[in-house]
Amino acid sequence: MNELKKITNLVEEELIKFEINNEIDARYSNFNEDTDIQINDLIKIKKDKNFNEIVNSIKEKFRNSNFIESFEIVDSGFINIKLSSTFLEESLQNHKKNILKKNVVEKGTVIFDYGGANIGKSLHVGHIRTLNIGRSLANIYKMAGYKTITDIHFGDWGMPLALIIAYIEDKNIDIETLSSDDLEEIYPNASSLSKENEEFYSKALNISKEMNLKNEYRISQWQKIYDVSTKNIKSLLSDLDFNFDYYLGESDVISLLPDFINNLKKKTLVKIDDGALIANDNQDPPALITKSDGSYMYLTTDIGTILYREKNFSPDYYIYVVDQRQKNHFKQLFKLVDYFKLSKSKFEHVPFGTVNDEKGKPMKTRDGKNYKLIELYNDLINKLSENNLDSAIVSTLAKSVLAYSDLVTKRTSNYIFDIDKFTNVSGKSAIFIQYSQVRAKKLIAQSHVESRLSVIGNDERKLVIEILKFNHFFKMALETNEPHHLAEYAYSLCHEFNKFYTNNKIFSEDINEDLKLHRLCIVEIFYQTITKVFNCLGIEPVSEM
RNA sequence: GCUCUCGUAGCUCAAAUGGAUAGAGCAACAGACUUCUAAUCUGUAGGUUGUAGGUUCGAGUCCUACCGAGAGCGCCA
Fold first, then answer.
1. What percentage of chain A reaches a pLDDT higher than 70?
2. Which residue, A352, A385, A404, sits at the end of a domain?
3. Rounded to the nearest 5 degrees, what angle is found at the Cα of A443, between the Cα atoms of A438 and A446?
4. How far apart are CA A154 and CA A138, in angstroms?
């Protein structure tokens, strides 16, 4: 339960006496020095004939509450409350229990589709959004009590693969000795060739069709490309701590499609239009199920994926962490889920903005190619290596920068990627929160006696209140699918801790034993909380720095 | 042309689903290390929240119009 509910209950109980059933909301506030929380809802009943009586009744209640140290009810109707030490202590103890609780599955199953990796294409800076947001949300949902399943959903079928095969044949490239670096060069070349050379394009179209018909030779070519590319992508993702429960792809679901499509035809849920098969549900633009040559498209494989997931996972909730430019695609897909009766589960597209360069265009390097994820990672390693640290710690720090610098920005904004800001080691950064966490860890390690909480004084209360805000931001991140709320919170929590650290010594001669153990207890709870936040964000705390 | 998203400090971004005085970081300037890690902390300066209206006790947030930016609109994914 939200600890502030104790306060709002007091107000609600009084209102009920006057037959008012409004739900009261309390929020943390920095209105002034004497205000920890504010309640705004009284304004709504200001016209009530008993208003003055209600106010007096609430005042009386507050005076008798040991949760409230002081309060005021101003004329405009705001209630400003300073919380008592008793309240803070109790809440902090509850918070600690809550945070140390193991994840228990008590809600439904949610499947996360994120990562956006495509066979034959290198992971580039644009991929960090789906990877970070997806991983973070999966962690958050897990903590919230859901069973989570993560699936990268490889783009490993259709025209891109056909283009690669066509190009390999066209240029007589030896498929047996193909490397992933070769593939990364081949795809852009094949793609541009298909745009200028019609003959090449129709060749690829034909290969795509042959793949769908399970032509043995094509499948064997496909398999070789698939093996080389997925091995490379998986290993990079694993190095960067992006691990999935499943590495399934479009290719895993196509076998489910022929029967399904035949069934749709029988039920006349689809019809031929301009030679192509479209859904018969009058969507505008129409939902294209197969091309006029019968081969599958984006929607087709996504439908197949739902069939697969229903059969193998039966999730209650589907979350797709995919670029917001594909909004219409998901709108169509979700309409088809109902129209074709694919599933009764909840479907949600969690869109995000593009990562742009300083001119506002999607991120590229100077020569016009994509800035690869591995390059960014190496650049970070180089930058952080300047301080003589163990290489394992440097790589963990680099990975935390990769996550944090991306996750501080609201999901939907198209943000401008700036390497200097991204790798910033002071201010609001991964390095800052890692440093704070290390400081706390070091303090805890120095103590050999069990800490214990006592009266929360003025020196500790700001930090304590900041710690208590965890619930709010966690819930906010969960409800809006926005990890940045927790990333912002990580900064303000650490900032509050660093202030505390600077101004209040613990292992100092003038600090008595009680106060020492009391402060250590708060530091411990800070540490447990920030560790939890790290976990939510997909960041691993370093041991030292 | 239609649809969607966005416009906040010099720059990059927040802002509790409508609350009081719009906050951070960077950059600038000024301070704090004989004291648990200064990758830290403190202070100064910086704003008519694109413009004009509207809704109400109250608007960065909701509505309308306009200006500006970006994205998407049938056989790519």
1. 99
2. A352
3. 125
4. 18
Residue range(s) defining the domain that contains residue A416: 377-545
Q: Which nucleotide is nearest to A393 (CA to C1')?
A: B39
**Same domain? A174 vs A289:** yes
Cross-strand bridge partners of residue A8: none
Q: In the beta sheet, which residues pair with residue A109?
A: A147
Q: How far apart are CA A215 and CA A211, in angstroms?
A: 6
Where among A336, A352, A368 does a domain terminate? Answer: A352
User: CA at A449, C1' at B26: how many angstroms apart?
Assistant: 42
The protein footprint on chain B, as nucleotides within 7 A of a CB, is 4-6, 12-17, 19-21, 24-27, 35-42, 57, 69-77
* A317-321 vs A346-350, strand pairing mode: parallel
Whole-number Cα distances in Å, A535 to A99, A359, A365, A397, A401: 12, 34, 32, 14, 14
Distance in angstroms (rounded) separating the CA atoms of residues A387 and A439: 17
A495's tokens? 């900032």
Same structural domain for residues A76 and A154? Answer: no
Closest CA to A257 of A215, A308, A206: A308
Looking at the 3D structure of chain A, how many domains does it have? 3
Reported confidence tier of residue A449, pLDDT bands at 50, 70, 90: confident
What ipTM describes this predicted complex? 0.96
Q: Rounded CA gap, A67 and A4, in Å? A: 10
Structure token digits, residue A416: 């401008």
Are residues A283 and A178 part of one domain?
A: yes
Same domain, A70 and A121: no
